[in-house]
Specification:
157 residues; 73% helix
């Protein structure tokens, strides 16, 4: 009969082996709940940046738009760094690409604000709902919503 020390060592070895084997099956993807929380918290920062763009002066708008662009890019970087659940990988990639593209689209608006071009600012704002990048984000988020994901405002705006 093995000694108590040998049995404890064997039990410890089994526990460690079991933990290692359990880790091998983990693909690194976030769970649905983790992913939902990540998207909501990341997008909240974008919303805050855009809320600060509601200013009366175009010069001030240009500065705030640059902050909003930075927030979009930071959100894209942050989301790109996570592995989504497999069932929403395509939509996740589309959201990340849409955030980056919209940050670039805002260059035109920011330039118009810097130049005091009120007409171009108004035209851009009037077309936000039909902006391809905004549509890409909204459509991908909507598809995730139909898959049962609660992403908060990004799926509602």
């Amino acid at each position: 009969m093995p000694s108590i020390a040998k049995r404890r060592s064997f039990a410890a070895l089994l526990a460690v082996s079991g933990a290692l084997l359990a880790g091998c099956g983990d693909d690194g993807a976030l769970t649905k709940v983790e992913y939902e929380e990540k998207v909501r918290s990341t997008y909240a920062e974008v919303q805050e940046a855009f809320a600060r763009t509601n200013v009366p002066l175009l010069e001030e708008l240009a500065v705030r738009l640059e902050d909003a662009q930075d927030a979009l890019r930071a959100a894209a970087d942050e989301l790109e760094g996570v592995e989504p659940p497999e069932e929403v990988e395509t939509e996740h990639t589309e959201v990340v690409a849409g955030l980056r593209a919209y940050a670039e689209d805002l260059n035109r608006l920011r330039n118009a604000a810097e130049q005091g071009d009120e007409r171009t600012v108004e035209e851009f704002n009037a077309r936000i709902a039909t902006n391809r990048s905004v549509e890409q984000i909204a459509e991908a988020a909507e598809r995730m919503k139909f898959k049962g994901y609660d992403l908060g405002p990004i799926a509602e705006e």
